[in-house]
Amino acid sequence: MKDEDYKSIALICKTPKECNKLKKRLEKNGQFEIDIINDKNDTYKAGVVIVPSYLAKGLEFDVVFIVNLDEKYEESEMDLKLLYVAMTRTHHLLYP
Question: Is the pTM of this model over 0.85?
Answer without folding.
Answer: yes
